[in-house]
Structures are given as structure tokens and as C-alpha cells.
Amino acid sequence: MRGSMKRAPAEQALHAGVTRCFLEPYSVVDVAYNPHVLQRGEENGAELDQLIRLTLKFIEERYSLTLSYAYHIAPFKLKGSLERMRESLRRGQTPGPCLQEQARRDGKGLTLDQLIHRAKAEESHDATLLLEEEVTPSQVPLIEEIASTEVPEELGAPLYELTVVPDTNKKPIKIELKVELPKVISISECDLSMSKDDLVIEVPEKYRLQLDLPELINEEAATATFDKGKRVLLITMPVSQTEH
Question: Which residues form the PIH1D1/2/3 CS-like domain (predicted)?
Fold first, then answer.
């Protein structure tokens, strides 16, 4: 929306033979509307007029200004950069006294056909510039890849306790492993793999533990439980009896 900020005072008298131009300062204000409200305004001219007047009143109160409630709706949509918006607004404005005088001087001595030809050439030039601005890709990519200079942190080994449980004859029957995982919320985060003589526990980006077991185990009979309250993983591994 284009609102008048102030006007240049009218001259009481102009010197003969001198053309004076008065440029009107303005500001561009972005105002966001609910799409449904805009749609109602497009369907009903009275609602659109009320919406515009409420907007002008809001700008007055927000910026402590006094605005004229006379307005003009541009016949085109404003898109792109602020500078392009200003150029579009300038194209849609009626030439001021100085521009009219320049046009009169430039066209002096030209026939009607020549004036029409010049006007069409200028319109074609403006359309070509606008098309180039729309289709020319940005020279600077929106996303720039930056090579990382950070060295990946080595995963820390969690605290653990390994216990070999014997029977009454002091023969090992199972191995219990308690692992403290304070950063783990669910057992689904853990990746556990084991063989007869070792195991590996991995939690992506958090922990990694690799152990050689003191006894050969029956990995198919091993069980694991996770205490969410204490954040402790308990793994029970029966010792393989075929090796004893």
C-alpha cells in the first residue's frame, strides 16, 4: 500500500519559462491479511473499501501519521524485491510536470506515426527488461555448501559392570552385564550384537562399548532388559555348557 507522507507546498507564483518538478516522498508498508478476508473484499467492493480504510487508520495509529484516505489500487500484483516494486509503481504513475515537458520536447517535430513507433519501442524495451529480470537465475545460490572442519567426536564408552555368576560348584553358568546409559530413553536406540566370545553395544552419536567375554556364551539364549527409570541395560548371557 502506498500512503502519502507529506506534500510539497504549492508555489504562489512560477517564473516564466521555468519548469519545476515536485517529487512526493512516500513509504512502502507491508500489511498481511487473512486470505478469507481478502476474498470477501474482492467479491464485495464495500468490504474492500472498509478494509483499506481500516488499514490506513492502523498505519496512522502505528506510526503517528496523518494520511489522506484517498487511495488508488494498482492494476497489477507487486512481486519480487522492494526496488522492483518501486519501479512497478513508478511505471503506473502519471508523469509529473517535468516528465511531460521532456516528452513534449522529445516529440517536437515528429509525426504521429513516428510517435506511435517510439512508444511501442519503449514498451517492448520495458517488457524485455522485465522478462530478463524474471527468468535470469540468481547468481548467488540460496544454499551454499560449506566444508566442515570439525573432527567427529569419538563415541564415549559407558560405565558398565561385568559379573560371572557361578553355580554351587563354582562353575560359571552365566554372565551378567550392567551398562549405564543416562542419555538413552528407549531400548530401541541401542544396537546390540554379540558372538560366542564378545559383544558390541552402540547408541548412535552417544555411546559405543566393545567387550571380550571371559567365557564362551550361548548367544541364542541371551536376554536383555532396559530399566527406563535408572537408564540401565541388563544383559544376561548363559555360559555355553558344551565347552565345559
Answer: 169-239
